[in-house]
From TrEMBL:
Signal sequence segment: none
PANTHER family assigned: UPF0332 PROTEIN TM_1000
Transmembrane segments: none
InterPro entries: HEPN_dom, UPF0332_toxin
Organism: Longimonas halophila
Protein's name according to its UniProt entry: HEPN domain-containing protein
Top-level taxon: Bacteria
Boundaries of every HEPN domain copy: 8-120
Stated family: Belongs to the UPF0332 family.
Length: 121
């Protein structure tokens, strides 16, 4: 199996975020929040690959993104972990989040992805 490139990860991140926007528009905030999480997970995979690191587990990817000072100064490196927790609560505890909250998370994720794209250019 071939290595997925940094740009492919970022493209997938953008697509997942677009899916999240559609889900919010169709009043599916919990499913949208899950897609927001995956969008940031993919962006984090891209950023780590950009530094020649390839972690396999979600917790390793999310946990290691803040290791790099260059990322901490340009990104909210705590956001992916927050979204990981929120996604798990939606999926496994059936917690509901208000639409406005999820819309804010979509905007935050958009900023994270845009900054990630600028970093890897």
């Amino acid at each position: 199996m071939s290595q997925i490139s940094t740009y492919e990860w970022l493209d997938s991140a953008s697509r997942r975020l677009g899916d999240a926007r559609l889900l919010v528009a169709h009043d599916r905030p919990e499913t949208a929040l899950s897609n927001v999480y995956f969008a940031l997970f993919y962006a984090c995979k891209a950023l780590l690959l950009h530094k020649d690191h390839d972690y396999k587990t979600h917790s390793s990817v999310i946990g290691n993104i803040g290791r790099f000072s260059s990322y901490r100064t340009r990104l909210d490196t705590g956001l992916p972990a927050q979204l990981q927790t929120e996604r798990a609560r939606c999926d496994y505890e059936l917690v509901s989040y208000p639409r406005a909250y999820v819309e804010r998370r979509v905007r935050e994720a958009q900023s994270f992805i845009e900054a990630s794209q600028a970093i890897v250019q």
